[in-house]
Amino acid sequence: MIVVQNVVFGALVGGLYGVAAVGLALVFGVLKMLNVSHGELIMLGGYLSVWLFSLWGLDPFASLAVSGPVLFLVGAALYLGLFGRLVPLHDEEKLKNSILIGFGLALILQVLAILAWTADERAIPTAYAGQVWRVGPVVVPLARLAAFAVGFVALGGLHLFLNRTDPGRAIRATAEDWQAAALMGVSVRRTYLYAFGLGSALAGVSGTLVSIADAISPSIGLPWTLKALIVVVLAGLGSIFGTFVAGVGLGVAESLSAFFLGGVYREVVGLVLFLVVLAVRPSGLFGRA
Amino acid sequence: MTGATVLELHSLEVAYGDQQVVWGVSLEVRDGEVVAVVGPNGAGKTTTLLATAGLLRPLGGQVMLLGARIDGLPPHAIVERGLALVPEGRRLFGGMTVRENLLLGGYPARARRARAATLAEVMDLFPVLAARAHQRAGTLSGGEQQMLAIGRALMARPRLLLLDEPSLGLAPRLVRRVFELVREIAARGVTVVVVEQNAFQALAHADRAYVLSGGRVAAAGPARELLAQDEIRRTYIGL
Amino acid sequence: MRGVAAAALVLGLLAAAPALTDRTAVLNWLFLVLLHVGIAQSWNLLAGFGGQVNLGHAAFFGLGAVVARVLWLGGMGVPWALLGGVAAAGAAGLVIGAPSLRLRGAYFAIGTLALAEILRITFANAMPNVSALTAAQLGAYTLAPRYYLALLLAAGATAAAWGFSTSRFGLGLAAIREDEDVAAAIGIPTFRQKLLALLASTVFAGLAGGVFAYYHLSFYPSFAFSPIWTFDALLITFLGGVGTVWGPVAGAAFFVLVREALALRLAELHLLIFGALFVAVVVALPGGLMQAGAALGRRRGPRARGPAPPPRPRDTSTRSPC
Prior knowledge:
The complex is a heterotrimer of chains A (289), B (239) and C (322). Chain A has one domain: ABC transporter involved in vitamin B12 uptake, BtuC. Chain A contains eleven helices and two strands; from the N terminus they run H-H-H-H-E-E-H-H-H-H-H-H-H. Chain A has helices spanning 2-31, 38-56, 60-81, 91-117, 142-164, 166-176, 178-183, 188-213, 221-235, 240-261, 265-280; strands spanning 132-135, 138-141. Chain A has a two-stranded antiparallel ribbon with strand order 1-2. In chain A, strand 1 (132-135) and strand 2 (138-141) form a beta hairpin. The two termini of chain A are 35 Å apart. Chain B has two domains: 1-82 and 167-239, 3-Layer(aba) Sandwich (Rossmann fold), CATH 3.40.50.300; 93-158, no CATH class. Chain B has helices spanning 45-53, 75-80, 98-105, 109-112, 115-125, 127-131, 142-154, 172-187, 199-205, 223-228, 230-237, and strands spanning 5-16, 19-30, 34-38, 60-65, 68-69, 83-86, 160-164, 191-196, 208-213, 216-222. In chain B, a hairpin with a 2-residue loop joins strand 4 and strand 5 (68-69). Chain C has 322 residues and is an all-alpha fold. Chain C has 14 helices and two strands, in the order H-H-H-H-H-E-H-H-H-H-H-E-H-H-H-H. Chain C has a two-stranded antiparallel ribbon with strand order 1-2. Chain C starts with a helix and ends in a 26-residue tail after the last helix. Classes of the chains: A mainly alpha (289), B alpha/beta (239), C mainly alpha (322). Chains in contact: A-B, A-C, B-C. At the A-C interface, helix 4, helix 7, helix 9 and helix 11 of A face helix 5, helix 11 and helix 13 of C.
């Protein structure tokens, strides 16, 4: 039964991996750029919620309404100031340089966070933090379950946006063939801006969801970027739902390997899996499903 | 047919990558006409169209659409002004359904308001698209894809429709159908420019034509006349 | 030959430094500069000259550091301990290099990033305790030997860079950097050359790690694998000039200078400044800031609009590889 407990816990964490990954995949799919500071944006979203809670007692679920839009604007600013300048480059150089910029940005954001909030961990001590739901012998942490559900709903909303609205279709079209999209009257640069902002907003949402049950510190950026990267690599760019499931899968794999192989392997299993997939299908890696 | 000029190219010079491909092309297209642009592979026909649509920025010369300069404008702005290009190879959004492709065709603000009506018109013109509305565009046959590509372009309610090699990869029966379609579209008031390697069909269905060679205009005039010239037939049609 | 003479002069001065001054602060500062020259130059060998961005550079630095430290504290003589570290780093480079170099550009970058993280976590768990010197070792600690080792590191790595830039091997690398497919087509053994560059890079990174391990009184083994070392390498190299011989040297001097100057105020401020400068340089790169840097980010034709068009006719760029 402890196994089931682990699986449940891992799945709940994995849902957040999925949300984080979708944000990264959105930017990569549309702009063909890899923002490796995605994890730091998640970190910022988390800190925002921590801050809002400590200042005004704003419940983290409510702060989603803030972290999403705020990180959207942050992403838009990053696109306009930095990533947008890479647009004219050829695909390979564009991707490489976006990774470099992201790498530098990750450092900058991490240092800013340390300066702003110190390197200590910050948590949100909500009233409902410890409440659980007992399903037979399995204990389900309610806060995590709620965060999982919210993440799922958010992705559902994204799906509807991308499939039922004009701007959403424009984003999908640009991701598939930007020149053809331009011929449809779609402003490619504006779409890039929206996509980057949207991906960053998802990072902000992820961060808030993380802050509900876990502590935030300036150093969570890189691990989260890698988690998102692993999930994207595992799931491909095909579908939002597929990415979410892959995220859950990663969470479960982590929990199980920690249980069977020992605590250290929790983090390592995903990374090793990542390298294996990279080695096995390096070019079709980010190919469409 | 008002006789007004819809498209003018003045001494257009265009590079593709680091190589100049078009070395001074001038042409004009009048309202309601069907103009064919033919010539051998590498003559610069596609590059000319890409530059007209704004996907390439000209090195020199001018492009005028409905009397206003459009060279240097981004493609989406040019589309908003009433131009639509069906690119070589169609460039459909294979991962999206037929209906979604058509809806995207109607994305420009000028077409969005009447989109539902236009969609009905296009479905009427291409019944096969109505039948396959929810199928992924990538799963259509070659001929159906060409219909979709043209239908998608028409969704923008263009004044000027550019077609780049519409007969590419199509069976002869379908090729003829495509050109008949071109005349039908022109009859509905859309000015059409067709770039084609299949010079015979293009010249047979056009009003006027330009022959491009080596990035320059080698010959121009009424399509029938060009078709009759031995030189043209031998060089570009092989008859 | 003037360049070589100047270099020899600088080298001579540096070698004489411990004799010329007895202010440990100055020697310490010089040591740090030389160490960072080694860290940056080793990265530069693979990235600037080889064109492969290694975001897991810290992995090799860390291996060199930890292996050397363990061997040294275990009783082995310093030269052998350092050699052990170098061997470990070099071996890792070969083991990892073979499969990972098949990954192109971006995938190599994120792959090495994941790799370094794996090593960091593994060592954080395997060796969680701080590595400290015994009282006897503390008593016997002098800066001079460490200084000379750092000088050896910096000189060696820079000599390697100079060798890369002037040799036929280096020309091959430049061709690979410019267009790997074309380079392979004209007969350059691309994989072997990239692997050699990787090996050189990891060997010097391992040596740098060993020097670091020999220098510090105490440190957490996992710290040697921290991404901050990769950051430092990138920051210094980009600011000084990617793919140049003296860029990392100038960059390292500037970097340590600013860091020590700001250390009294806010410890992390220098990272912020350098991070911002680094990002600015990368963004400005397409404009052709550095000759070699320009090879990392090549613009498509001058008149194209928006994102680069899909390459249809083969891009006939006449840019020379050097």
